[in-house]
Known about the structure:
The protein is an alpha/beta fold.
Amino acid sequence: MKILIKGCEAxxxxxxxxGCHAFFGYPxxxxxxxxxxxxxxxxxxGRLIIQAESEISAINMVYGAASAGFRTxxxxxxxxxxxxxxxxxxxxxxxLPCVIVNVCRLGPxxxxxxxxxxxxxxxxxxxxxxxxxxxxxxxxxxxxIYDLTIKAFELADKYRNPVVIFLDGTLGQMMESIEVxxxxxxxxxxxxxxxxxxxxxxxxxxxxxxxxVIRSLYLDNEEVKNHMKKLNEKYNLMKINEVxxxxxxxxQEVDIILVCFxxxxxxxEKVRDILKDExxxxxxxxPITIWPFPYDExxxxxxxxxxxxxxxxxxxxxxVEDVILGCSSKNKVYSCAEVYGNVIDCExxxxxxxxxxxxDKHEYKI
Length: 366
């Protein structure tokens, strides 16, 4: 069945489809529509939603629901991620699965409500203390928001780890037609089902002789060593198994490869079409997981481009550092990075590509 739906609302519908039992959030533009939509839909489905008094409260409520084995989610926008940081670290340390949504807005502080991708470093490197990692999914359409939200819950349970969905305000607010499955899924919403599927969860001692304890504190040196080793092995498995990207037009050598994610990749596809008329061949590499990042894919195409890579992103240049790591100095890497409240337009990207070909643009230096 096809429906016309806004990005934030599609995310909420996908969470319900995925069997999200409990949502805890707080209104903040431009993700308030997620909270508003779920405030109607969750009770209709017999599920729990609480508008917490703060982002800090919301993430700790998620901690509690996840500890009991329920599928749970929170959503926020950039300043809210800062407030959730400690709670996310606690959940990663306690190995609790959950889905966290960041609909990114512009600038530090309160900034503006306009769309940006300035939280790239936040979600890929600095979600909280302790060096933990989370899978970060970056959709580029409303359909992909829906599909990747369902996948996020599966990945969270698979690795017993938080998973982040990262999108900008444009994707959250835009409406598109998407395909949804009309079949209603059976979710495990009884304690008996949860005990079977999540035997580690803290939900009583029925049918067992011990109590499950959820914790991230280990005072014994041998215990903490084993726990850190276990976490690191899990993160390495994510790097091996969960890297995802889309490649367009790289079956043959191209003049320039555009590396982009989220809404910007849609703009870059238009750029590719425009430059065909100028006999400039453009390829696109779009990370769908921005962590783990597709370094091997970048490396694979280092010999496939004449002028190198151009990273296009709505920040001051953040993903460009990952592309440089992937290239291992085998190519020049350039940056088209702007933040001014609007999505970067085709003309800006086209002009940068022309400058690269003419030798008028300097490569990016870390």
